[in-house]
Write a structure and sequence with these properties.
The complex is a heterodimer.
Chain A (H helix, E strand, L loop, with lengths): L5 H7 L2 E4 L5 E4 L2 E4 L5 H10 L9 E4 L16 H17 L2 E3 L9 H8 L7 E4 L13 E4 L2 H10 L1 E4 L3 E8 L8 H12 L7 E6 L1 H4 L3 H9 L8 E3 L4 H7 L8 H12 L11 E6 L6 E3 L7 E3 L13 H14 L14 E5 H4 L2 H11 L9 E5 L3 H10 L1 H8 L2 E2 L20 E4 L14 E4 L2 H10 L10 H5 L3
Helix pairs in contact in A: 2-5, 6-8, 13-15, 13-16
Chain B lengths: L5 E9 L6 H4 L19 H4 L22 E4 L11 H9 L3 E4 L4 H8 L4 E4 L2 H13 L4 E6 L4 E3 L5 E3 L4 H9 L3 H6 L2 H13 L6
Parallel strand pairs in B: 1-2, 2-3, 3-4
Antiparallel strand pairs in B: 1-5, 5-6, 6-7
The chains are: A alpha/beta, B alpha/beta.
Chain lengths: 475, 203
């Protein structure tokens, strides 16, 4: 039999029908739904008199619009409230399970899927959200879709898709201390660009990927979309199985053993070919920080803000000049030392328990700089509860961080958590687009450790050299 | 879906690369629960100054872009968020086709779902169109022909483009994709029985 990649195995196992003139009718095992991209899809079903074909394969939650402050109060913004209540009405009408605002299972859709064990190796997972790529960390084929496609999946449990090409991204070597999953993926996007993997499904391989925790793998796969990829995947291994075992929706007993045996066969066969290959040496990477207005505008924390003239293409020169103007940065300025006003720890990229632990280690026993407003927004209410059980909320609270309820929050600022114009934010989220965190807001993407260090120092700082004595001396 | 066959209309140049969907329709306008009402917010933070008046420096506000129905722009257009509100806003504003060297994958699919034709041309061809568009003060018109897979300006420019035959047929005929898929009911049900036998029936 021809050797196949992980992607090819999952794709082939979900072909319902192959059109003669191109695309594939692909079966969907898990459809995740949230309040922003679903109302028009449910409306479409109603208008056409259609039902949800497999409601038991569909999970809904509210995350984008929800307040992260006091939940005993009604949602202040009436339009946000309408979007949330529309899903609260649609879910029961169509028989879909909803983790609503008052549920202990509420959270960012890409945090709760894995948390429940609903995200499983070898499955096809879709959601009307580009960061669905997160679930690829388990060896699932998971990708974002638009609202018309959401309606299509609700009605048919299938999706018409052109077969993407494959790309291996191999991280050789081991990342140094202070260099995280976030730094691996930011370095990749910096290397290949925000459209660099368009039309491709990335499979991440190599020693540095194997060494990552499951949370770290989710961070890497999450940002695949920022490289333009259709999806990102990592072959499941013992760490994956150990992470999933015992979760509420994971198989049990003999079904578990059978599932694990099948999941072990998903790994790419020796000799299988990818359409493209990219290699990065993880041992040579430094912590990354973005300086511009897309995630590909990124550099080592030890670097300086680039000069537009360093770019050969005129279009890039214009884009960089425009980005620096928006970001209020001058070419040649060292990134380390740029003062920040806000710090955001959270999002589907870095809002899981391990991210909070890593940040808490940096924060422990220190104080947020007087000029900084810092907040922690756990990725889900279960992450929040777990963190509180470990006392992380006290560490953050004593340091001066706000400790909030779960949601997408300031990653995209659809609720009240936004930057003011000109405010500069060290953020663990995934997009530094103009206005993403608030009109005129200036976003620097980085790892939780780096963002935590920035909160304490009041400026961008290399977490590798960040220790109390250095901080106390104000160096 | 509104079919697309041949369209001739005013072209607008947006010579920027990596235009993301957060710029096409900023997040504060995603809260509507209908498919309509987004056109007025297209490129909001670029189109309007803080006081709400149109910014004359923005490309779509220039006199020769008034009434534009074909957008000519840079590579990787529509990157970022999967929000279908972006093509909804572009279509409601009046655009029928977008010409660029490349598009983000989800955005490309979303356009096809809404009768908004995404046309991929070579980098040099797009550069020519951008240049002609910006130079033609009185307004520059383009014909986008999905039947012949061709873009022309009636003044010597002509380029052919590729599109998946399935997508092309859907657009030409304005077909309902859900209706088409439901014609495969027997195959879907058969797949579900096989899949369930492999233990993949529920979550």
């Amino acid at each position: 039999m021809t050797p196949r990649t992980l992607f090819e195995k999952v794709w082939d196992a979900h072909i319902v029908h192959q059109q003669d003139d191109g695309p594939t009718l692909l079966y969907v095992d898990l459809h995740l739904v949230h309040e922003v991209t679903s109302p028009q899809a449910f409306d479409g079903l109603r208008l056409a008199g259609r039902r949800v074909r497999r409601p038991e394969l569909t999970l809904a939650t509210v995350d984008h619009n929800v307040p992260t402050g006091d939940r005993s109060l009604p949602i202040a913004d009436p339009i946000s409230a309408t979007q949330v209540s529309t899903l609260e009405r649609n879910a029961p009408e169509f028989g879909v399970e909803l983790f609503g605002l008052d549920s202990p299972g509420q959270g960012i859709v890409h945090v709760i899927g894995p948390e429940l064990g609903a995200t499983q190796p070898g499955s096809v997972i879709v959601c009307g959200d580009s960061h669905t790529s997160t679930h690829g960390a388990f060896g699932a084929l998971a990708f974002g879709i638009g609202t018309s496609e959401v309606e299509h999946v609700l009605a048919t449990q299938c999706l018409v898709q052109a077969r993407p090409r494959t790309m291996e991204v191999r991280f050789t070597g081991r990342a140094a201390a202070g260099v995280t999953a976030k730094d691996l993926v930011l370095a990749l996007i910096g290397k290949i660009g925000t459209g660099g993997a368009a039309g491709h499904v990335i499979e991440y391989t190599g020693e540095a990927i194997r060494a990552l925790s499951i949370e770290g793998r989710m961070t890497v796969c999450n940002m695949s979309i920022e490289a333009g990829a259709r999806a990102g995947m990592i072959a499941p291994d013992d760490a994956t199985f150990a992470w999933l075992r015992g979760r509420p929706r994971a198989p049990t007993g003999k079904a578990w053993d059978d599932a694990v045996a099948a999941w072990r066969r998903l790994a790419t066969d020796p000799g299988a070919r990818y359409d493209r290959e990219v290699e990065l040496d993880a041992s040579r990477l430094a912590p990354q920080v973005t300086w511009g207005t897309h995630p590909g505008m990124v550099a080592d924390i030890t670097a300086r803000v680039p000069d537009p003239s360093e770019y050969p293409a005129e279009a890039d020169q214009r884009a960089v000049a425009r980005a620096l103007e928006y970001m209020g940065l001058k070419a040649g300025t060292p990134l380390e030392g740029v003062p920040v006003d806000r710090v955001f720890l959270g999002s589907c990229t870095n809002g899981r328990i391990e991210d909070l632990r890593a940040a808490a280690q940096v924060v422990h026993g220190r104080r947020v700089a007087g000029s900084v407003r810092a907040m922690v927004v756990p990725g889900s209410m279960r992450v929040k509860a777990a963190a509180e059980a470990e006392g992380l909320d006290r560490i953050f609270g004593e340091a001066g961080f706000e400790w909030r309820n779960a949601g997408c929050s300031m990653c995209l600022g659809m609720n009240d958590d936004i930057l003011g114009s000109g405010e500069r934010c060290a953020s663990t989220s995934n997009r530094n687009f103009e206005g993403r965190q608030g009109k005129g807001g200036r976003t620097h993407l980085m790892s939780p450790e780096m963002a935590a260090a920035a909160a304490i120092a009041g400026r961008l700082i290399d977490v590798r050299g960040f220790h109390p004595s250095r901080f106390a001396l104000g160096l | 879906m509104r079919p697309f066959t041949v369209h001739t209309g005013r072209a607008a140049a947006l010579p920027r690369v990596n235009v993301d969907t957060d710029q096409i329709i900023p997040k504060q306008f995603l809260k509507r629960i209908e498919r309509t009402g987004f056109g007025q917010y297209l490129f909001y933070d670029w189109r309007f100054r803080p006081d709400g008046t149109p910014d004359p420096a923005f490309e779509l506000n220039r006199p020769n872009a008034v009434g534009a129905t074909v957008l000519v722009t840079g590579a990787n257009f529509g990157s970022g968020s999967s929000r279908e509100h972006a093509p909804w806003a572009l279509a409601e504003y009046g655009f029928r086709a977008i010409v660029a060297p490349s598009f983000a994958d989800i955005f490309y699919n979303n356009c096809c779902q809404n009768g908004l034709l995404p046309v991929r041309l070579a980098e040099a061809e797009v550069a020519t169109l951008l240049e002609r568009c910006e130079r033609t003060r009185a307004g520059y018109d383009l014909t986008v022909d999905l039947v012949r897979q061709r873009v022309a300006d009636g003044a010597g420019f002509e380029a052919l483009f590729e599109i998946d035959p399935y997508r092309r047929r859907m657009l030409l005929e304005g077909l309902d994709e859900i209706g088409l898929t439901l014609l495969n009911e027997v195959e879907i049900a058969a797949f579900e029985r096989r899949h369930a036998a492999l233990g993949r029936s529920s979550i």
